[in-house]
Amino acid sequence: MSIVRLIYVRVPADQAKQAQENWKTKCAPLMIQQKGCLTEELLRCTDAPGEFISYSEWDSEESIRKYLETEDHQEIKRHNRNIRGAEVSIKHYELAR
């Protein structure tokens, strides 16, 4: 069963374009090449500028744990340091049966 990893991000409205560009050009390409990452998408809130959800599906929690130990994960964090005032919350979900 796959695991959905949601990263809720809120940035000041004047930083939204930069946050989206960071994801598109730097973060997503690194994420999607990770072993176990099945898909990676960015959702932009239509009601609140500056609110995003990074949506990724993984084959297992173990793959996520291994990814979090990689240099690529550290690189993604570095790419987002230029966004001031960002609020981030990360949650994992699985299909309820």
Task: Chart the SSEs and their pairings.
Elements: E1 3-10, H1 16-32, E2 37-44, E3 51-58, H2 61-68, H3 71-79, E4 87-94
Antiparallel strand pairs: 1-3, 1-4, 2-3
Helix pairs in contact: 1-3
What structural keywords apply?
97 residues, alpha+beta, Alpha-Beta Plaits, four-stranded antiparallel sheet, 3 helices, globular
Overview of this structure, please?
The chain has a four-stranded antiparallel β-sheet. The protein has a single domain (3-94), classed as Alpha-Beta Plaits (2-Layer Sandwich), CATH 3.30.70. Helix content is 35%, strand content 33%. The protein is globular. α1 (16-32) packs antiparallel against α3 (71-79). It has 97 residues and is α+β, with helices and mostly antiparallel strands.
